[in-house]
Design goal:
This protein is 27% helix and 25% strand. With 268 residues, the protein is α/β, with parallel strands linked by helices. The chain folds into two domains: 138 residues, Rossmann fold (3-Layer(aba) Sandwich); 115 residues, Dihydrodipicolinate Reductase, domain 2 (2-Layer Sandwich). Helix 2 runs parallel beside helix 3.
C-alpha cells in the first residue's frame, strides 16, 4: 500500500479511450504518479507499453503492488475480480452499475474493512456529490434525470425503441436499481448518486431521449426532511454515452483517491 516515501502507483484495467488517456496522464512529467500496470483484453493494443507493466492475468495483478486500481472496461470485471483486487489495493470501478448487486457490494466493503483498502466512486457527471454524501441521512427524496440525444444512448441491453421516435420521450422512470439493469452503460453516474444518498431503490432515476439536443444534461434534485432543497444542472457536449468532461472528472477522482488531504467519494 501507499507510503509517504514513494509515489502512488496506479493500475489501469481497460485500454479504450478513457484507459489510454489515464495512462498518458499518469506517465506525463509532473504527474506525481507511477503506472503500476495496464491490462487490456486485447494485448495487441499495448505494444507501445513497457512489457514489464503489462498484466496478463487479472487474478494476479496484486503482484504489481498498485495503490489504486481503476477499472475502465466493463462491470463484469468488478463482479469477477473486485474482491481479489481489494485484498491488496484500493479500487475505483468506473462501471459502477456492477455495484447494483447488493451481495457483491457488501462483499467488497467487507473485504476493504478487513484489509484496510478503500472502494472509491468516480464523480462522473455528478455535481454536488459531496453535499449529498454529507447529509446522507437527511434526504427524503432524490431524483436524477439524464436528457440525451438518442444517438448518445446505448439501447443494446434494453428492448426500448424510444430512440427511433422524433419527439422527446421518457424511456425510463423509476428506481435507479432498475434503470441500471436496463441501461448499464448509460447510468453509472445515477448509481453513484444513489449510493451516496438514499440508496438504489429509493433514488429516482429518469432517462429522457431527446433528438433535439446537441448536448447531454444531468439534473439532480434533492429534498431534505427539514425542508431543504438542492438542485443542480450540468450541460456538456456528448461523445458516445458520456459528456466530454468525463475524462477530466475521472482524472480528478483518481487524483483525489491518492491524495491524503482531499479524498474522493468512498463506500469503505
Amino acid at each position: 500500500m501507499q507510503t509517504a516515501d514513494r509515489r502512488p502507483r496506479i493500475g489501469i484495467i481497460g485500454y479504450g479511450f478513457i484507459g489510454q488517456t489515464l495512462v498518458e496522464r499518469i506517465q506525463a512529467a509532473g504527474s506525481g504518479l507511477d503506472l503500476a500496470f495496464v491490462y487490456n483484453r486485447s494485448p495487441d493494443k499495448l505494444k507501445h507499453i513497457d512489457p514489464a507493466l503489462i498484466a496478463t492475468e487479472l487474478g494476479a495483478v496484486n503482484e504489481f503492488e498498485a495503490d489504486l486500481i481503476v477499472e475502465t472496461a466493463h462491470p463484469g470485471i468488478t463482479a469477477e475480480y473486485g474482491v481479489s483486487f481489494m485484498t491488496g489495493s484500493n479500487y475505483m470501478p468506473l462501471s459502477t452499475t456492477a455495484l447494483v448487486d447488493d451481495n457483491l457490494r457488501l462483499e467488497l466493503i467487507k473485504t476493504g474493512e478487513a484489509n484496510g483498502t478503500r472502494l472509491y466512486l468516480a464523480a462522473g457527471a455528478l455535481v454536488g456529490g459531496s453535499a449529498l454524501m454529507m447529509r446522507r441521512e437527511q434526504w427524503r427524496e432524490i431524483k436524477i434525470t439524464f436528457r440525451k440525444n438518442p444517438g448518445n444512448i446505448d439501447f443494446s441491453d434494453s428492448k426500448n425503441t424510444a430512440g427511433s421516435t422524433p419527439e422527446p420521450s421518457i424511456i425510463f422512470e423509476g428506481p435507479v436499481r432498475e434503470i441500471a439493469m436496463k441501461f448499464p452503460r448509460n447510468v453509472n453516474t445515477m448509481v453513484t448518486c444513489a449510493l451516496l444518498s438514499t440508496g438504489l431503490d429509493e433514488c429516482h432515476g429518469v432517462l429522457i431521449s431527446d433528438p433535439t439536443l446537441d448536448c447531454a444534461i444531468a439534473e439532480v434534485e434533492a429534498w431534505a426532511h427539514d425542508g431543504g432543497y438542492i438542485r443542480t444542472e450540468k450541460r456538456q457536449p456528448a461523445v458516445g454515452v458520456s459528456g466530454t468532461e468525463m475524462l477530466d472528472s475521472v482524472w480528478q477522482s483518481l487524483v483525489r483517491a491518492v491524495d491524503r488531504e482531499t479524498e474522493a467519494f468512498s463506500l469503505v
